[in-house]
Amino acid sequence: MAKFIVVTGGVLSGLGKGISTASIGKLLSANLKVVPIKCDGYLNTDPGTMNPIEHGEVFVLDDGGEVDMDFGHYERFLGTNTKFEWNLTMGKVFQEILENERIGKYLGKTVQYIPQVTDVIKQRFMSIARKEAADIVLIEIGGTVGDMENELYLEAVRQLGQELGRENVIYVHLTYVPKPSNTKEQKSKPTQQSVKLLNERGIWPSVIIGRADKTLNTTIKEKIAMFCNVEKEAVISGVDVSTVYEIPLLYNQEGLPAIMHKHLGIYSPPSLLDWEKLVHKIKSPDKKVTIAICGKYTALMDSYASIIEALVHSGAHLNTRVELKWLETTRIETGKTTSAKELSNIDGVIVPGGFGTRGIEGKIEVIRYARENKIPFLGLCYGMQLAVVEYARNVCSIKGANTTEIENGKIKVKEPVVCILPSQQKVTRKGGTMRLGGQDVAIKPNTQAFDIYKKRSIRQRFRHRYEINPKYVPKLEKNGLVFSGYHPKEKIMQLMELPGHPFFMGTQFHPELISKLETPEPLFYNLVKQALKFKERS
Ligand code: GLN
Fold it and tell me: 113: buried, middle or exposed (CB in 10 Å: 19+, 13-18, 0-12)?
């Protein structure tokens, strides 16, 4: 039977519960099958329709699920593919409740939060554990203890512990240990109070991770242990670090695996040798490049989390620190600045995915500059579509080339070089209806893409409604653009490149979603490699 580790958060949000959960998973996953589950309190079915400014990046899974960005951490730390089912939301839970009620599953009964809703939550945990033959199910509860919207999850995990016993279910509480400037010492009171909130809900944590600027000293550990009813060894320091990939190493030094082993009666020594070497490279690399990320949400870095991580992974393998410059392309289209000015000290350019009209003329201008000045360029999804628009306008002389995504009652695109996918034409509902998830990409031989991937077929993840208009492909190709990756059966262009340019590539897919520290995604790796060369040349 699976063992369950439940991670809750206290005191305040933004402590990095997702990273902590992923790190615990990393420490146990060397010999055990760890399955992460994230419980979100909101009533959306999934985060797919939320604004990235509010919710951060929407992470897309191979099975097509749009899930919380914590799944990015889970996949990057555990090195596995996760599933849509593993992201519980109150939206999904209540959908099941209402369906059950309509088919008569609760005939004669009043449907209540307890037991009907908590039962659905527990059944989901158990069925995932069974289906996946999990050794460890790692349950992260969203939000902070005390938030109303997560109460039902807390009640469900309390019941789980009661039913399965303490040797099968343990609770880890992540809290904050501040050091106010006037006292200059670490304070345990917020932790005590937040553990009390958990106790009121019938949950007694076995492990407390205290987020702090410096390692928790013995006195504070003893104090937390005494007031919160945990062993002193089970009070773990979660200190601020320069790279999140260091966290499993720190937890390991603090003895977290041994505590887990003891409580759950398991044994799974972590294997962190390669990981440690890569972390060392992230922390003290010999080289440096600067890459500009040119988009519309650049104020909120969380909306580009996977891109940032993919660059960290590649940098670690190339002994290079990748510095980022955030370029808000709306500033270019309103004339506040120019691409020449903004890209003067840049070694590479990424135009990330996006939606809608705002900022796209600025992106097109940045792409032109990168193409003409031979700056390494990677266009992701919308970034590729706009690279094709730019090429159509400025190289193929197709005046009025654009994407039909900008069309509305007033605007009509004359030359739709990017148009809606046939499969999307009749779609009116919004949630989970894009072309989503993993697809095979056939790679054309004798291309840069083939040199990079060294394979005829790769698998990548997609999230889009528009595509390169197949009608324009012959003209674009005649003018030098190469579509080096395409759908094996349908006529969908999935990867493009420009011969004669050191690195000018665009993907209809999102390669950032599959990059891992130990196995960086090849396009990102080559972008950084080419950025290093560009820097040497200039
Ligand atoms: N808006 C574009 C489309 O729907 C690109 C999407 C994206 O960048 N993820 O096709």
Answer: exposed
**Cβ contact 365:349 at 8 Å:** no
**Known catalytic residue: 512?**
yes
Give 93 or 429, the one with higher predicted confidence.
Answer: 93
Q: What is the pLDDT of residue 337?
A: 94
Does ligand 1 come within 6 angstroms of the Cβ of 382? yes
Query: In angstroms, what is the span from residue 370 Cα to ligand 1's centroid?
Result: 21
Mean of per-residue pLDDT scores for the chain: 95
Residue minimizing CA distance to atom 6 of ligand 1: 464
Sign of CA dihedral 13, 14, 15, 20: positive
Q: Rounded to an integer, what distance in angstroms lies between the CA atom of residue 175 and that of residue 188?
A: 10
Task: Name the closest-CA residue to atom 5, ligand 1.
Answer: 382
At 287 the pLDDT is 97
Domains by residue range for the chain, with CATH: 3-276 (3.40.50.300), 286-537 (3.40.50.880)
Contact between 292 and 325 under an 8 Å Cβ cutoff? The reply is: yes
Grouping H, G, I as helix, E, B as strand and the rest as coil, residue 194 is: helix
Q: Which residues pair with 5 in a beta bridge?
A: 138, 170
Question: For residue 192, what are its two tokens?
Answer: 């005590």
Amino acid at 66: E
Instruction: Report the C-alpha gap between 64 and 71 in whole angstroms.
Output: 13
